[in-house]
Design brief:
This protein is about 0% helix and about 60% strand. By secondary structure, the protein is mainly beta. Strands 2, 4, 5, 6, 9, 10 and 11 form a 7-stranded mixed β-sheet that branches. Strands 1-3-8-7 form a 4-stranded antiparallel β-sheet, with no helix packed on it.
Length: about 120
């Protein structure tokens, strides 16, 4: 079983920055796409950004130019640098990876989520 542990959330003022990290562990054979999603109260979970194993990235329009996703393949870690934060960025942020383990085919895994609160 693949475990994902997120860190880096917290309370920040509007205009500030946070950096989220997500480490994947377990009997991992390979990881394809790593991504960040978020869910605000009363809203559906939505994609924030994703990155492939080769470094291709995809961003939601509302974070382009403010957020940067990156990964360290050697550490099975994905990061989300969030700058110029706005109150509407307040949400629980979830890490998601598509991984193949030594005993299972590729499938998606979710972290437990980390709260990001932006005060205006």
């Amino acid at each position: 079983q693949v475990q994902l542990v997120e860190s880096g959330g917290g309370l920040v003022q509007a205009g500030g920055s946070l950096r989220l990290s997500c480490v994947a562990s377990g009997p991992i054979f390979s990881i394809n796409v790593m991504g960040w999603y978020r869910q605000a109260p009363g809203k559906q979970r939505e994609l924030v950004a994703a990155i492939t194993s080769r470094g291709s990235t995809n961003y939601a329009d509302y974070v382009k130019g403010r957020f940067t996703i990156s990964r360290d393949n050697a550490k099975n870690t994905v990061y989300l640098q969030m700058n110029s934060l706005k109150s509407e960025d307040t949400a629980v942020y979830y890490c998601n990876v598509d991984a193949r383990t030594i005993i299972t085919d590729i499938r998606g895994y979710w972290g437990q989520g980390t709260q990001v609160t932006v005060s205006s």
